[in-house]
Amino acid sequence: MSAINEIASLWMEGTMRTLDAFRTGFGATMDDPPPTTRSRVIYESGLVRLRHYEARGENQKRVPLLLIYSLIKRPFILDLQPGRSVVEYLVKQGFDVYLIDWIPPRSDDRDHGFNEYVNTDIANAVRAIQIYTGIQQVSILGYCFGALLGLMYSALHSGNVKNLVTLTIPLDTSVRQLPIEHLTAAMTSRSAKTIVEMYGNAPAWMMYSFFNTLAPTHHLLDKFVGAYRSSARPGYLDTFKLFERWLHSDVPMAGRIFLETSEMWRENSLMKGTMKVGESIADLTRIAMPLLNVIGDRDDIVNPASSEPLPELVSSDDKQNLHYPTGHMGAAVSADSLKRLWPQITNWLSARDD
Amino acid sequence: MADNNDNPRSKLNSNDTTFSDEILKLAQCLMPEPPTSKVKRMVADITNKGIDRQLHELGWKAYDTVVGAANNATNRAFTSPTVGNVLGGAIDIMLRYQRFNMAVAGAFFSALWPAVGLPSATEVESIRNDVRAMREEMRDVIADRDSRDDFASDLHVAVRESIINQQAVEKAAARESNGQAGDVRKSSVYQFSVWSGWPGADPMEQGEDVGN
Questions:
Q1: Does domain A9-350 have CATH number 3.40.50.1820?
Q2: For residues A270 and A147, is the Cβ–Cβ distance under 8 A?
Q3: Does ipTM exceed 0.95?
Q4: Does A227 touch chain B (CB under 8 A)?
């Protein structure tokens, strides 16, 4: 076994060194592609930049909708291209959309943890919306890790949240079925600490390699072959290129939140009700607002079984799981989801807009 | 017409022709037509019979099977506790090696680079920092410009005032509740503080869209 260990460690070392050299040599993260929907930056502070997408159409909704995206990639996947943009769809349905466009952490942001993200950044963003619109309560729609942040905010600041929608939320980390769950579990607290001690923040290339390691055949070969096979479909290659650009849009994860996340996943503390955010426990029973928990049945990043228990943990009367046969990113980019899933989400929100 | 057999040159040629004909016949027996022509003819036959489509489909089926098997093998490997343990150990070892390498390489190259006239890692890092600072300055300038367009700076001030007001209210509440300040943050009562006025009556009408 020690020989395997040695070989594996050498291989990993070489790979990571190569990646590190590649990253240092080729430098900065790519810029975002041109947006589909026009926005204006209405607030910027800490690591939050708040974009406003103005509602269109006659049937405009009263309650502002705040989108919270994950921390490890750029959020332009939500506004990918005309006809494949969640933001475009929402504004056309009359929602005044606000998006937290997370500013990638720099080396001096290594101490940014859940407390700073939730109790300062999201809290300030909500406060800015309150002042901007004059409306006290906002609806929150969180995606993946953003759903976790939105959930914590809703638990700690429940009075500010009118409705909560969580998409593909990784909640119950005791579930061990998918490769990603085993790989995450394989990382010890010592490894996480060493990464933060060495780099300050968890580097973007590390995040990228982590996800690529999970499906090497797909990332090295099959996705390109798939693109070739589908290239005759109109517009497919354009979408593929944009999606690839998003796949390469990893950003570093601030050191403290990386450590706190790995601890949370090891301990399953949010699910158990022991997760501390700053001075307070993120107690999910304090969530009493309407909750819609959207689950992708074909999700291979967030196990559907990990998201399912959420409604049982909150004290809302109006709560439900919405299962949809889609993958982790399919909920955001597939044309089918925009035709069938998002109308259900917007109908649910519209019914609770008063 | 004169008989060619009378011409000695023709005789010679006749002898040569016979030999080369034999060679040609032998070659034709061994290789009746050039390989490229043969392949072309075979492909044409296959196309005419519609076999190429079947081969094409069969090829993709084989590919899908191989890729599916590879994916299954990867998934099985990652879900195996043994592989998980090995991987967990490997990550630890790798990180420690890397840390060690960084320290050793730093010590070695810090002496080597100046000797061969190359910049040290510290010098490169300082240039990087300068570039980063310039980028940040540029970003700030752009943000400042956008802020003027979008009243983000006004909103920034308003949010700050709101936070200050909230803190004052929280402090007062904490004093009233005799030092139970730790619970104040949890309360939703103080989560929306009053802000006295908005600089623009209708923010929707202000300025131009700036895009992303």
A1: yes
A2: no
A3: no
A4: no
